[in-house]
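Hi R.,

Here's the chain you asked about this morning:
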Amino acid sequence: MKSSKKRAQSKKELLIKQVLSRGTVDVIERTHLEHALSGNKKLRVKLGIDPTSPDLHIGTAVVLRKLKQFQDLGHKVVLIIGDFTAQIGDPSDQKTERRAISKKEIVSNMKNYLSQAGKVIDLGKTEVRYNSEWLNVGAEELLALTKVATINQVSERADFRARIKRGERVSLMEAFYSLLQGYDSVKIKADVEIGGTDQLLNLLMGRQVQQNFGMKKQDILTVPLLEGTDGVRKMSKSYNNYIGINAAPKDMFGKVMSIKDALIPVYFTLCTDVPEKEILKMERDMKSGRLNPRDAKIRLAREIVLLYHGERKAASAENEFVNVFTKKKLPKKISIKLVDKRKLGIVGLLVASGTAKSNSEARRLIEQGGVRVDDMRIIDPKKDIKILPQGVLLQVGRRKFVKVKYKK
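And here is the predicted structure, written out as C-alpha coordinates:
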Protein backbone atom coordinates (compact mmCIF):
# COMPACT_ATOMS: atom_id res chain seq x y z
CA MET A 1 0.00 0.00 0.00
CA LYS A 2 2.81 2.39 0.97
CA SER A 3 4.73 1.66 -2.24
CA SER A 4 1.66 2.40 -4.37
CA LYS A 5 1.18 5.71 -2.55
CA LYS A 6 4.83 6.55 -3.12
CA ARG A 7 4.49 5.75 -6.82
CA ALA A 8 1.39 7.95 -7.07
CA GLN A 9 3.18 10.79 -5.27
CA SER A 10 6.24 10.38 -7.48
CA LYS A 11 4.05 10.48 -10.60
CA LYS A 12 2.32 13.62 -9.34
CA GLU A 13 5.65 15.33 -8.66
CA LEU A 14 6.84 14.46 -12.18
CA LEU A 15 3.64 15.88 -13.70
CA ILE A 16 4.00 19.08 -11.67
CA LYS A 17 7.58 19.43 -12.92
CA GLN A 18 6.38 19.01 -16.52
CA VAL A 19 3.62 21.60 -16.02
CA LEU A 20 6.05 24.18 -14.67
CA SER A 21 9.13 23.42 -16.76
CA ARG A 22 8.58 21.55 -20.03
CA GLY A 23 7.78 23.98 -22.82
CA THR A 24 7.08 26.93 -20.51
CA VAL A 25 8.35 30.49 -20.69
CA ASP A 26 6.69 32.66 -18.01
CA VAL A 27 5.33 31.41 -14.69
CA ILE A 28 3.88 34.31 -12.71
CA GLU A 29 3.64 33.51 -8.98
CA ARG A 30 5.63 30.31 -9.54
CA THR A 31 6.07 29.47 -5.85
CA HIS A 32 2.36 29.96 -5.22
CA LEU A 33 1.38 27.86 -8.23
CA GLU A 34 3.80 25.06 -7.34
CA HIS A 35 2.41 24.98 -3.80
CA ALA A 36 -1.18 24.95 -5.12
CA LEU A 37 -0.41 22.10 -7.52
CA SER A 38 1.12 20.10 -4.67
CA GLY A 39 -1.97 20.56 -2.52
CA ASN A 40 -5.43 19.05 -2.69
CA LYS A 41 -7.44 22.04 -3.95
CA LYS A 42 -8.91 21.60 -7.43
CA LEU A 43 -7.80 24.64 -9.43
CA ARG A 44 -9.82 26.28 -12.20
CA VAL A 45 -7.43 26.58 -15.15
CA LYS A 46 -8.48 28.86 -17.99
CA LEU A 47 -7.58 28.94 -21.68
CA GLY A 48 -9.33 31.19 -24.17
CA ILE A 49 -9.32 30.66 -27.94
CA ASP A 50 -10.91 33.05 -30.43
CA PRO A 51 -12.51 31.32 -33.45
CA THR A 52 -10.85 33.56 -36.04
CA SER A 53 -10.35 30.62 -38.45
CA PRO A 54 -11.94 27.16 -38.81
CA ASP A 55 -8.74 25.19 -38.19
CA LEU A 56 -6.74 24.48 -35.09
CA HIS A 57 -3.12 23.56 -35.77
CA ILE A 58 -0.33 21.88 -33.84
CA GLY A 59 0.85 25.33 -32.76
CA THR A 60 -2.50 25.80 -31.00
CA ALA A 61 -2.08 22.29 -29.64
CA VAL A 62 1.04 23.38 -27.71
CA VAL A 63 -1.11 25.34 -25.26
CA LEU A 64 -3.87 22.70 -25.35
CA ARG A 65 -1.28 20.08 -24.39
CA LYS A 66 -0.29 22.25 -21.42
CA LEU A 67 -3.96 22.45 -20.46
CA LYS A 68 -4.12 18.65 -20.65
CA GLN A 69 -1.25 18.42 -18.14
CA PHE A 70 -3.34 20.34 -15.60
CA GLN A 71 -6.23 18.03 -16.43
CA ASP A 72 -4.05 14.97 -15.79
CA LEU A 73 -3.31 16.37 -12.33
CA GLY A 74 -7.04 16.39 -11.60
CA HIS A 75 -7.71 20.13 -11.98
CA LYS A 76 -10.75 21.66 -13.68
CA VAL A 77 -9.87 23.08 -17.07
CA VAL A 78 -12.12 25.76 -18.54
CA LEU A 79 -11.95 26.25 -22.30
CA ILE A 80 -13.42 29.60 -23.31
CA ILE A 81 -14.43 29.99 -26.93
CA GLY A 82 -14.16 33.72 -27.58
CA ASP A 83 -17.15 34.10 -29.84
CA PHE A 84 -17.61 37.68 -28.58
CA THR A 85 -13.96 38.78 -28.43
CA ALA A 86 -13.35 37.32 -31.90
CA GLN A 87 -15.46 40.18 -33.26
CA ILE A 88 -12.78 42.58 -31.99
CA GLY A 89 -9.70 40.48 -32.67
CA ASP A 90 -6.72 40.17 -30.36
CA PRO A 91 -4.32 43.04 -31.17
CA SER A 92 -1.33 41.30 -29.55
CA ASP A 93 1.73 41.47 -31.83
CA GLN A 94 -0.40 42.79 -34.69
CA LYS A 95 1.34 45.28 -36.97
CA THR A 96 -1.97 46.63 -38.32
CA GLU A 97 -5.59 46.81 -37.22
CA ARG A 98 -7.31 43.43 -37.55
CA ARG A 99 -10.05 42.91 -40.10
CA ALA A 100 -13.44 42.72 -38.42
CA ILE A 101 -15.00 39.23 -38.44
CA SER A 102 -18.74 38.86 -38.84
CA LYS A 103 -20.90 36.79 -36.50
CA LYS A 104 -21.68 34.49 -39.42
CA GLU A 105 -17.97 33.78 -39.96
CA ILE A 106 -17.47 33.16 -36.25
CA VAL A 107 -20.33 30.66 -36.10
CA SER A 108 -18.92 28.87 -39.16
CA ASN A 109 -15.40 28.81 -37.70
CA MET A 110 -16.66 27.33 -34.41
CA LYS A 111 -18.34 24.30 -35.97
CA ASN A 112 -15.42 21.90 -35.57
CA TYR A 113 -13.46 23.63 -32.80
CA LEU A 114 -14.43 21.24 -30.05
CA SER A 115 -13.89 18.08 -32.12
CA GLN A 116 -10.38 19.33 -32.92
CA ALA A 117 -9.63 20.37 -29.32
CA GLY A 118 -10.94 16.98 -28.22
CA LYS A 119 -7.98 15.33 -29.94
CA VAL A 120 -5.79 16.86 -27.22
CA ILE A 121 -7.88 17.43 -24.09
CA ASP A 122 -10.60 15.29 -22.49
CA LEU A 123 -13.79 17.16 -23.39
CA GLY A 124 -15.77 15.03 -20.93
CA LYS A 125 -13.79 16.63 -18.10
CA THR A 126 -13.69 20.11 -19.61
CA GLU A 127 -15.94 23.05 -18.81
CA VAL A 128 -16.61 24.71 -22.16
CA ARG A 129 -17.89 28.29 -22.09
CA TYR A 130 -18.58 30.97 -24.71
CA ASN A 131 -17.78 34.51 -23.62
CA SER A 132 -20.84 35.93 -25.37
CA GLU A 133 -22.63 34.54 -22.29
CA TRP A 134 -21.41 37.48 -20.21
CA LEU A 135 -19.86 40.05 -22.53
CA ASN A 136 -23.15 41.40 -23.87
CA VAL A 137 -22.93 43.77 -20.91
CA GLY A 138 -24.97 46.87 -20.19
CA ALA A 139 -23.56 50.41 -20.08
CA GLU A 140 -23.23 50.43 -16.28
CA GLU A 141 -21.18 47.20 -16.19
CA LEU A 142 -19.12 48.35 -19.15
CA LEU A 143 -18.25 51.66 -17.47
CA ALA A 144 -17.22 49.79 -14.32
CA LEU A 145 -14.83 47.73 -16.43
CA THR A 146 -13.27 50.82 -18.06
CA LYS A 147 -12.05 52.02 -14.63
CA VAL A 148 -9.66 49.07 -14.35
CA ALA A 149 -7.02 50.35 -16.79
CA THR A 150 -5.76 53.73 -17.93
CA ILE A 151 -5.12 55.21 -21.36
CA ASN A 152 -1.47 55.62 -20.33
CA GLN A 153 -1.19 51.90 -19.54
CA VAL A 154 -2.83 50.77 -22.77
CA SER A 155 -0.75 53.14 -24.93
CA GLU A 156 2.46 51.70 -23.45
CA ARG A 157 1.89 48.38 -25.21
CA ALA A 158 4.75 47.88 -27.66
CA ASP A 159 2.42 46.82 -30.50
CA PHE A 160 0.19 49.89 -30.05
CA ARG A 161 3.16 52.22 -29.56
CA ALA A 162 4.74 51.08 -32.84
CA ARG A 163 1.51 51.65 -34.76
CA ILE A 164 0.95 55.06 -33.19
CA LYS A 165 4.52 56.06 -34.08
CA ARG A 166 3.82 55.11 -37.71
CA GLY A 167 0.66 57.25 -37.65
CA GLU A 168 -1.63 54.22 -37.92
CA ARG A 169 -4.96 53.61 -36.23
CA VAL A 170 -5.39 51.97 -32.85
CA SER A 171 -9.11 51.71 -32.25
CA LEU A 172 -10.65 52.01 -28.78
CA MET A 173 -12.23 48.63 -29.44
CA GLU A 174 -8.76 47.05 -29.73
CA ALA A 175 -7.68 48.80 -26.54
CA PHE A 176 -10.65 47.15 -24.82
CA TYR A 177 -9.66 43.62 -25.82
CA SER A 178 -7.43 42.79 -22.85
CA LEU A 179 -10.05 44.15 -20.43
CA LEU A 180 -12.70 41.87 -21.90
CA GLN A 181 -10.35 38.88 -21.77
CA GLY A 182 -9.62 39.76 -18.16
CA TYR A 183 -13.34 39.93 -17.44
CA ASP A 184 -13.57 36.32 -18.64
CA SER A 185 -11.30 35.42 -15.70
CA VAL A 186 -13.68 37.17 -13.33
CA LYS A 187 -16.78 35.39 -14.65
CA ILE A 188 -15.31 31.88 -14.54
CA LYS A 189 -13.31 32.49 -11.33
CA ALA A 190 -9.96 31.46 -12.81
CA ASP A 191 -7.15 30.39 -10.47
CA VAL A 192 -4.70 29.98 -13.36
CA GLU A 193 -4.68 31.25 -16.94
CA ILE A 194 -2.42 29.87 -19.65
CA GLY A 195 -1.58 31.15 -23.13
CA GLY A 196 1.17 31.79 -25.66
CA THR A 197 3.96 34.25 -24.89
CA ASP A 198 2.20 36.82 -27.09
CA GLN A 199 -0.66 36.74 -24.57
CA LEU A 200 1.35 37.81 -21.52
CA LEU A 201 0.02 41.40 -21.39
CA ASN A 202 -3.56 40.14 -21.71
CA LEU A 203 -3.05 37.57 -18.96
CA LEU A 204 -1.53 40.19 -16.65
CA MET A 205 -4.52 42.42 -17.31
CA GLY A 206 -6.68 39.51 -16.16
CA ARG A 207 -4.96 39.71 -12.75
CA GLN A 208 -5.63 43.45 -12.63
CA VAL A 209 -9.31 43.03 -13.54
CA GLN A 210 -9.79 40.28 -10.97
CA GLN A 211 -8.21 42.43 -8.26
CA ASN A 212 -10.48 45.34 -9.20
CA PHE A 213 -13.50 43.07 -8.69
CA GLY A 214 -12.25 41.98 -5.28
CA MET A 215 -10.97 38.58 -6.37
CA LYS A 216 -7.71 36.77 -5.75
CA LYS A 217 -5.36 37.28 -8.72
CA GLN A 218 -4.84 34.33 -11.05
CA ASP A 219 -1.46 32.71 -11.56
CA ILE A 220 -0.10 32.79 -15.11
CA LEU A 221 1.77 30.31 -17.29
CA THR A 222 2.85 30.93 -20.88
CA VAL A 223 4.22 28.61 -23.56
CA PRO A 224 6.42 29.40 -26.60
CA LEU A 225 4.95 30.23 -30.00
CA LEU A 226 5.70 27.32 -32.32
CA GLU A 227 7.49 28.38 -35.49
CA GLY A 228 5.75 27.32 -38.67
CA THR A 229 7.01 25.16 -41.52
CA ASP A 230 8.78 28.19 -43.02
CA GLY A 231 11.03 28.29 -39.94
CA VAL A 232 10.66 32.07 -39.72
CA ARG A 233 7.27 33.13 -38.39
CA LYS A 234 4.93 31.69 -35.80
CA MET A 235 2.63 28.95 -37.07
CA SER A 236 -0.47 30.59 -38.49
CA LYS A 237 -3.04 29.91 -41.17
CA SER A 238 -2.61 33.47 -42.44
CA TYR A 239 1.07 32.69 -43.19
CA ASN A 240 0.18 29.32 -44.76
CA ASN A 241 2.92 27.69 -42.66
CA TYR A 242 0.73 25.59 -40.43
CA ILE A 243 0.08 21.89 -39.83
CA GLY A 244 -3.60 21.40 -39.10
CA ILE A 245 -4.78 19.07 -36.34
CA ASN A 246 -7.29 17.69 -38.86
CA ALA A 247 -4.72 17.33 -41.67
CA ALA A 248 -4.72 13.92 -43.37
CA PRO A 249 -2.01 11.60 -41.95
CA LYS A 250 0.20 11.64 -45.06
CA ASP A 251 -0.10 15.44 -45.38
CA MET A 252 0.71 15.90 -41.71
CA PHE A 253 3.69 13.57 -42.02
CA GLY A 254 4.98 15.33 -45.13
CA LYS A 255 4.64 18.81 -43.64
CA VAL A 256 6.55 17.80 -40.51
CA MET A 257 9.29 16.42 -42.76
CA SER A 258 9.53 19.85 -44.43
CA ILE A 259 10.51 21.77 -41.27
CA LYS A 260 14.05 23.05 -40.84
CA ASP A 261 16.47 20.74 -39.04
CA ALA A 262 17.08 23.35 -36.32
CA LEU A 263 13.44 23.05 -35.25
CA ILE A 264 13.53 19.28 -34.64
CA PRO A 265 14.28 19.47 -30.86
CA VAL A 266 11.72 22.29 -30.42
CA TYR A 267 8.97 20.29 -32.15
CA PHE A 268 9.85 17.18 -30.13
CA THR A 269 9.58 19.18 -26.89
CA LEU A 270 6.40 21.09 -27.65
CA CYS A 271 4.49 18.69 -29.89
CA THR A 272 5.23 15.16 -28.60
CA ASP A 273 5.42 13.12 -25.40
CA VAL A 274 8.96 11.88 -26.05
CA PRO A 275 10.94 12.18 -22.77
CA GLU A 276 13.23 15.19 -22.55
CA LYS A 277 16.29 13.01 -21.91
CA GLU A 278 15.76 11.30 -25.27
CA ILE A 279 15.31 14.66 -26.99
CA LEU A 280 18.58 15.97 -25.53
CA LYS A 281 20.39 12.82 -26.65
CA MET A 282 19.00 13.16 -30.19
CA GLU A 283 20.09 16.80 -30.25
CA ARG A 284 23.64 15.87 -29.18
CA ASP A 285 23.77 13.00 -31.68
CA MET A 286 22.67 15.26 -34.55
CA LYS A 287 25.32 17.83 -33.65
CA SER A 288 28.05 15.15 -33.49
CA GLY A 289 26.92 13.51 -36.75
CA ARG A 290 25.92 10.21 -35.12
CA LEU A 291 22.27 10.81 -36.04
CA ASN A 292 21.06 11.95 -39.44
CA PRO A 293 18.53 14.79 -38.95
CA ARG A 294 16.33 13.13 -41.58
CA ASP A 295 16.00 10.01 -39.39
CA ALA A 296 15.18 12.15 -36.34
CA LYS A 297 12.60 13.99 -38.40
CA ILE A 298 10.97 10.74 -39.53
CA ARG A 299 10.54 9.75 -35.90
CA LEU A 300 9.18 13.23 -35.12
CA ALA A 301 6.63 13.02 -37.93
CA ARG A 302 5.58 9.54 -36.79
CA GLU A 303 5.14 10.70 -33.17
CA ILE A 304 3.00 13.68 -34.20
CA VAL A 305 0.78 11.72 -36.60
CA LEU A 306 0.37 9.02 -33.95
CA LEU A 307 -1.03 11.57 -31.47
CA TYR A 308 -3.79 12.72 -33.83
CA HIS A 309 -4.47 9.66 -35.99
CA GLY A 310 -3.30 6.59 -34.09
CA GLU A 311 -0.52 4.04 -34.57
CA ARG A 312 -1.84 2.31 -37.72
CA LYS A 313 -2.23 5.53 -39.73
CA ALA A 314 1.10 6.85 -38.46
CA ALA A 315 2.86 3.70 -39.71
CA SER A 316 1.03 3.93 -43.04
CA ALA A 317 1.99 7.60 -43.49
CA GLU A 318 5.62 6.76 -42.74
CA ASN A 319 5.67 3.87 -45.25
CA GLU A 320 4.08 6.11 -47.88
CA PHE A 321 6.67 8.84 -47.31
CA VAL A 322 9.62 6.44 -47.45
CA ASN A 323 8.31 4.80 -50.64
CA VAL A 324 7.64 8.09 -52.44
CA PHE A 325 10.61 10.17 -51.32
CA THR A 326 13.30 7.63 -50.57
CA LYS A 327 12.52 4.75 -52.91
CA LYS A 328 11.00 7.09 -55.52
CA LYS A 329 7.81 5.03 -55.79
CA LEU A 330 4.40 6.50 -56.52
CA PRO A 331 1.81 6.90 -53.75
CA LYS A 332 -0.61 3.97 -53.37
CA LYS A 333 -3.60 6.25 -53.83
CA ILE A 334 -3.62 8.96 -56.49
CA SER A 335 -6.73 11.05 -57.06
CA ILE A 336 -8.15 11.30 -60.59
CA LYS A 337 -9.29 14.57 -62.13
CA LEU A 338 -11.39 14.65 -65.32
CA VAL A 339 -11.03 17.54 -67.78
CA ASP A 340 -13.15 18.31 -70.84
CA LYS A 341 -10.29 19.21 -73.22
CA ARG A 342 -7.72 16.98 -74.92
CA LYS A 343 -5.07 19.68 -74.77
CA LEU A 344 -4.46 22.25 -72.04
CA GLY A 345 -1.79 24.81 -71.32
CA ILE A 346 0.23 23.76 -68.28
CA VAL A 347 -1.08 26.75 -66.30
CA GLY A 348 -4.69 25.85 -67.09
CA LEU A 349 -3.98 22.19 -66.30
CA LEU A 350 -2.72 23.05 -62.81
CA VAL A 351 -5.79 25.15 -62.08
CA ALA A 352 -8.21 22.58 -63.59
CA SER A 353 -6.63 19.78 -61.55
CA GLY A 354 -6.91 21.75 -58.32
CA THR A 355 -3.15 21.69 -57.68
CA ALA A 356 -3.01 25.50 -58.02
CA LYS A 357 -5.66 27.97 -56.90
CA SER A 358 -4.96 30.57 -59.58
CA ASN A 359 -3.05 31.19 -62.80
CA SER A 360 -0.49 33.30 -60.93
CA GLU A 361 0.13 30.53 -58.39
CA ALA A 362 0.44 28.00 -61.23
CA ARG A 363 3.06 30.13 -63.00
CA ARG A 364 4.99 30.57 -59.75
CA LEU A 365 5.05 26.79 -59.17
CA ILE A 366 6.28 26.19 -62.71
CA GLU A 367 8.98 28.86 -62.51
CA GLN A 368 10.20 27.38 -59.20
CA GLY A 369 10.68 24.02 -60.92
CA GLY A 370 8.08 22.22 -58.85
CA VAL A 371 5.89 20.84 -61.65
CA ARG A 372 6.30 17.52 -63.47
CA VAL A 373 4.12 15.82 -66.07
CA ASP A 374 4.77 12.08 -66.44
CA ASP A 375 8.01 12.63 -64.48
CA MET A 376 9.23 15.34 -66.89
CA ARG A 377 9.92 18.72 -65.28
CA ILE A 378 7.99 21.57 -66.92
CA ILE A 379 9.70 24.97 -66.82
CA ASP A 380 7.83 26.79 -69.60
CA PRO A 381 4.52 28.33 -68.39
CA LYS A 382 3.31 28.48 -72.02
CA LYS A 383 3.78 24.78 -72.71
CA ASP A 384 0.72 22.83 -73.92
CA ILE A 385 0.02 19.39 -72.48
CA LYS A 386 -1.76 16.72 -74.51
CA ILE A 387 -4.04 14.55 -72.39
CA LEU A 388 -3.23 10.99 -73.47
CA PRO A 389 -5.91 8.23 -73.54
CA GLN A 390 -4.45 6.70 -70.36
CA GLY A 391 -4.18 10.13 -68.76
CA VAL A 392 -1.14 12.07 -67.57
CA LEU A 393 0.43 12.03 -64.12
CA LEU A 394 0.78 15.52 -62.71
CA GLN A 395 3.14 16.10 -59.80
CA VAL A 396 3.30 19.44 -58.00
CA GLY A 397 5.95 19.85 -55.34
CA ARG A 398 7.01 16.79 -53.41
CA ARG A 399 3.65 15.58 -52.16
CA LYS A 400 0.88 16.39 -54.66
CA PHE A 401 0.09 13.74 -57.30
CA VAL A 402 -2.97 13.87 -59.57
CA LYS A 403 -3.92 11.68 -62.53
CA VAL A 404 -5.58 13.87 -65.17
CA LYS A 405 -7.82 12.17 -67.71
CA TYR A 406 -9.99 13.37 -70.57
CA LYS A 407 -13.72 13.28 -69.83
CA LYS A 408 -15.24 11.43 -72.77
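One quick note: The chain has a mean pLDDT of 88.

Cheers,
M.
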